[in-house]
Fold this sequence. Notes:
Elements: E1 2-3, E2 10-11, H1 18-35, E3 38-42, E4 45-50, H2 55-68, E5 73-78, E6 85-90, H3 95-103
Amino acid sequence: xxxxxxxxxxxxxxxxxxxxxxxxxxxxxxxxEIRAEERLTLPDGYAIRFQADALEAVARFVENxxxxxxxLTFALTVDANCGPLWLRMTGPAGTRAVLEAELNLNACGCx
Length: 111
């Protein structure tokens, strides 16, 4: 469990069913470290850009991530004409620090 002082934030990986947990973490690494094309720092989180073909994988990621990090708000924008998609993950104060730690965003290979 990751928690940040002075914030009511905690990620609870055990909220993801045990049989799906390892695949979820592998998918998160793949999305953040390999497939992410751009990352924007937001005041309350992050936005990450992916190619259009990542839609199914990003949706699977959100499906499980919302179980272990219920404080997060997810927004997925899918551009017209099979353009890129953006995943926004936001929340209360301290959310960026939790996302950086949980998803190793400093290792992101994106711009």
